[in-house]
Design brief:
Layout (H helix, E strand, L loop, with lengths): L2 H9 L7 E5 L3 H12 L4 E5 L3 H10 L5 E4 L6 H10 L4 E4 L7 H10 L5 E2 L5 E10 L5 H9 L6 E4 L14 E4 L5 H4 L6 E8 L2 H5 L4 H12 E9 L2 H14 L2 E2 L3 E9 L3 H13 L5 E5 L18 H13 L1
Parallel strand pairs: 1-2, 1-3, 3-4, 5-11, 6-9, 6-10, 7-8, 7-9, 10-12, 12-13
Helix pairs in contact: 1-5, 4-11, 6-12, 10-11
Length: 319
């Protein structure tokens, strides 16, 4: 038995069988994937041969299941539509290039979990901002939105990153698990700069302070903003986050923000992927403008930039 097989068996050595639908064009890859899942006690309940057959099956079978698909089976636009339409379904891409049985089994087993339930009543004046791992702009976006609200306060989780200066009128307080209960009694509009998360489920189960503070953001907030950088890593993490977020029960209302948007050929592909993934959900795109990052709205401003107009629109949507 190979090391990969031994490791993969361990990955799914416990827990109930999972149900899968395959949507893979290459018959050999589909057979390999199906055999791998079968050998670990899981069920392939349907093999889709076309997008239409997949959609028809999902419409007729409103189940919590996972669809394993290949990139040549479904367009990115339709994938985004499927994700928005079938919120109980988790979509996972399978590729022949770099196919890793242990990694695949580990990922699909982690997605089989009980729904995450909010444990407290959301606070109407609390908006939290989180983002992808390594994403710039979480603090900048928090600052810009707070600057557009009278008497706003900013709570931030100190994860040892350098935080940009907020607008002079914004009140700033460091948030910790100890002082959190007192902080959220404030009557002003609160923006919580909660930092980044690489994987929602693993972070929520993390007993370290970062996990505790993310739990606070999800449990207490009435609205949530999710920020990602306009690159391939950001898009990949966004896709995983949306799959995780769909498993929350009564989550905060969420808005997705593509930060540092550019308009060259490579960036246009990123923009297209972003739009397909967040189809049917609230989103904004913030252009890259380094000169505007530390500038805040002024009553006597003669004109508004695209950067500032976008933040005006985001702030208005949160009111």
């Amino acid at each position: 038995m190979s090391a990969a097989t031994t490791k993969s068996r361990k990955a799914l050595s416990t827990g109930a069988a999972l149900n899968f639908v395959t949507a893979i064009v290459d018959s050999e890859l589909e057979a390999t994937t199906a055999q791998l899942l079968y050998s670990h006690g899981n069920n392939i309940i349907f093999r889709a041969l076309t997008e239409d057959s997949l959609e028809k099956y999902l419409l007729q079978n409103n189940l919590n299941l996972q669809v394993l698909y290949s990139s040549d089976f479904i367009s990115s636009k339709n994938l985004g539509r499927f994700r928005a339409k079938f919120t109980k379904v988790i979509f996972k891409e399978v590729s022949e290039q770099g196919f890793d049985p242990a990694n695949l089994l580990s990922e699909v087993s982690q997605k089989d979990r009980q729904p995450l339930v909010r444990s407290s009543t959301p606070i109407s004046n609390l908006i939290s901002v989180i983002g992808t791992s390594g994403s710039p702009g979480i603090s900048t976006i928090t600052n810009q939105l707070a600057a557009r609200v009278d008497q706003a306060v900013i709570f931030y989780f100190n994860n040892h990153s350098i935080r940009p200066d907020a607008a002079p009128a914004s009140k700033l307080s460091e948030a910790t698990p100890t002082n959190w209960p007192e902080l959220i009694t404030r009557s002003e509009q609160i923006f919580f700069d909660a930092g980044c998360t690489s994987a929602l489920t693993s972070t929520l189960s993390d007993r370290r302070i970062s996990g505790l503070m993310l739990n606070q953001a999800l449990n207490s907030s009435s609205k949530l903003l999710y920020v990602l950088k306009a690159d391939t890593a950001g898009i990949s993490q966004l896709s995983r986050f949306i799959n995780d977020y769909a498993n929350l029960i009564a989550p905060p209302t969420i808005t997705y923000i593509l930060n540092q948007q550019r308009f060259d050929a490579k960036a246009r592909l990123i923009n297209s992927q972003f739009l397909s993934i967040v189809a049917g959900q609230k989103y904004f795109q913030v252009p890259f403008d380094y000169s505007e990052v530390g500038k805040y709205p002024a009553k006597k401003a003669l004109f508004a930039t695209t950067f500032s107009k976008q933040f005006d629109a985001i702030a208005k949507s949160l009111a």
